[in-house]
Each structure stands twice: as C-alpha cells, then as structure tokens.
Fold:
Amino acid sequence: MTAVLQARGLGKRYGRHWALSDCTLDIPAGHVVGLVGPNGAGKTTLLNLASGHLTPTTGEITVLGGRPGTDPNQLRKVGFVAQDTPTYAGFTVAEHLRLGARLNPGWDDATARDRIARLGLDPGQRAGTLSGGQRAQLALTIGIAKRPELLILDEPVAALDPLARREFMQGLLEAAVEHELSVVLSSHLVSDLERACDYLVVLVDSRVQVAGEVEELLATHHRLAGPRRDPDQLPRDQRVVSASHTDRQSTFIVRTDSAIHDPVWTVSQLSLEDLVLTYLDSSTRVAPRPVLEVQR
Structure:
C-alpha cells in the first residue's frame, strides 16, 4: 500500500499547549479520506503540518514520500483549501485564475476556465460579491487546477447551506475521479462524508481511534443487544469498542471479521454516523482487552 501521508509520534506545541501530540497515522493513496474528530482533536493542526504551513515540534511527517513544504517540487504536489476557503475580496474570478497560474508551475488553465464556466461564475465578478458557496467553489477550482497529487481540505463546507454543500462535495468527487487525486477532507458533517469519502479516519485527542475503508469498517462493526453481560465474556475475536448497560440489558458495538452465531444477541449493522459517534463517545468506549501471551 502506497501512503500519501505518514505520521509517527507527530506533535505540535504552542508554548505549554499541545495542539497535537503523539499522532501516528498512515493514509493510503487513491482515496477520498474523511478526517473526523471533536473540536481540539488536532485535525486542523495535522492538516497544516501536512501542507507545510507548520513544522513539527516532535515526531515526523512525510507527504508523498517527502517532508512537507521543504522544496518547490514538494509544494507542487499538494493542494490546500483552508477552513475559510480563502479568496481575495477585491480580486475578480479571472484575476484569481491568473494569480493561480503565476504561482503554480503546473497550472492547468483549461481545467480552471472550464470549471468556472460550468459553475456559471462570471469571470469579471469580484470574489467579495460571490456567495459563500461560489467562493468555496472558486477556492476548490484553484486547488484542482494546481494539478496536485494530494488535495487537502480543512472544513471547506462548514459555513455553507445544504444545497451549496452538496454541490461542492459533488464537484470534489468528480474532480477526484477525473484527475485521479488523493483527497484528505476534514469535516464535522458525516452526511457530507457519506456522499464523497471511501476512507475514514477518526482522530480523538491526537490519537487515531479507527482508520480504514468505509465499506470494510461498516461490514465489520456490529451492534449487539441482549441480556446484561460483562464485555470480557464476549469471544476474543470480537473487539468491544463500546458498551452500555441497563439493569437487564447490554448493548455492545463490536468489531470482528467473524460471523456472530450466539442466538442470545440481536445483531444490527451501523450507519457511518453510528460508527463515527461510537468512536467519539468517550463515555461508552471500552479499552482494548490485553493480548494473552501463549505459554510455551
């Protein structure tokens, strides 16, 4: 598996505050990756480290096989759309494209102009008069026309209305397929991730709680409901992710590759939102059981 991003013990500190600490992660190439986590988990810091806007305090990060932001060739490989989808209010749409062409040696002007035309944006209109959705699409167009190998987006649709979010995500997915982009997208909106992402990373307190292809994660996570039982009583091949109990009933979320045959359980599948919330909810999360050593 080729990784577009690898982090090992990665950390970033501001004074006494650690915005990210001891983060270890592998993100494979060829995916649209959804990065999810609560506020303060370190998502934005991780993406800024990956794009070369920040340098690590501790640990290591490599992107596309090199250190982020270290040389022009490395910078050309990575596109970045920040949280506020930055544009220059006084610049027209056409001036944004000309600026993109001057700053990016691999600029694809035909793609940029074709996309602007398909979006119905007026090249002579100033960015300050565009709607939030139009500004986001302009920022995405610049990111795509740079022709990067990896496109990083930090909460690009957080402030958009539902229709603008849908149009943005649809455009992103089309671009990823057309230009064979690897994409890392952070978002709090799981519904948007469901539309576009085929790989999921959940980050909590700088630590990766779960990572994998969405289809595989949904196929291997199950909700079990039945008579009250201690998590340690479940088979060893069922990793208990979360547990909740009433006086008589237990509900577990388990991860397993094996079929669940015990008739005592009512077994149901999880939605992507269920899966994400399971790993975010510290009140029900269960620490992994220790691995038993085989005595020889």
In short: The radius of gyration is 22 Å. The domain at 3-205 is CATH 3.40.50.300 (Rossmann fold).
